[in-house]
Amino acid sequence: MSEANIRAQIYTILNAVANIGKVYDYERLTADWNQFINLYKTQISAVDQIRGCQISRKSFREKKIVLGVGSSSHEKTHVFLIRGFLGVNDASATEKTFNALIEAIATAFRTNKTLNGTAQDHEFIQAESIEPRNFGGVLCHYAEMTLTVYERI
Predict the structure, then answer these.
(1) Amino acid 149: pLDDT
(2) Strands 138-152 and 71-87
(3) Total Cβ atoms within 10 A of residue 137
(4) Are 153 and 76 in contact (CB under 8 A)?
(5) Which residues contact 65 (CB under 8 A, 6 or more apart)?
(6) What pLDDT is stored for residue 68 in this prediction?
(7) Which of the residues in the chain have pLDDT under 50?
(8) For residue 65, with 0-12 CB atoms within 10 Å meaning exposed, 13-18 middle and 19 or more buried, which class applies?
(9) Under CATH, which number does the domain 3-152 receive?
(10) Three-state DSSP state, 71
(11) pLDDT for 66
(12) Helices 94-110, 3-15: crossing angle, 10 deg rounding
């Protein structure tokens, strides 16, 4: 187990969610909002739109676990931040679509507690924030989700 392997499996699980859009396994940054929007342009059901997710590690902590007399191990707790985006289209009720995607993401992780064998366990996806945000003049649905993952070292 390692942070890189765990991150790769988070990417794999996210990327398997139907119609999720573009998924990146690191935080995409640019000073140009138009470039940022272009990173997430995709086509779903023959419709061009902004849709996708990015993964970053928010924090980690490590502690010693006593297993018995004279026996111990270490556990690392990673907190990953998953940011999701979907361009707003009121006529298409994209708020409902976005919430359905968030639920699909939650289900994908709920049913994979070891992240394909790379983690000891996790605390399920937590949606910390779901709100509209303006990116380079484009109004998008935006979510910040956290995933706390336990790794035995």
Answers:
(1) 97
(2) antiparallel
(3) 8
(4) yes
(5) 72, 73, 74, 75, 152
(6) 72
(7) none
(8) exposed
(9) 3.30.2000.30
(10) strand
(11) 75
(12) 130
The amino acid occupying position 80 is F
Q: Is the dihedral of CA 116, 117, 123, 128 positive or negative?
A: negative
- Tell how strand 121-135 and strand 138-152 pair up: antiparallel
Taking only the tens place, the pLDDT of each residue in 113-145 is: 999 999 999 999 999 999 999 877 889 999 999
Q: How far lies 85's CA from each of 39, 115, 127, 143, in Å?
A: 11, 23, 13, 7
What does the DSSP assignment read for 100-117? HHHHHHHHHHHT-TTTTT
What gap in Å lies between CA 99 and CA 73, rounded to an integer? Answer: 39
Say what the pTM is: 0.91
Whole-angstrom distance, CA of residue 148 vs CA of residue 87 = 27
Residue 137, both tokens:
């003049």
Q: Are 85 and 141 in contact (CB under 8 A)?
A: yes
Asked if residue 86 lies in contact with residue 21, where contact means CB atoms within 8 angstroms, the answer is yes
111 phi, psi to nearest 5 deg: -95, 10
Q: Which pLDDT value is given to residue 65?
A: 79
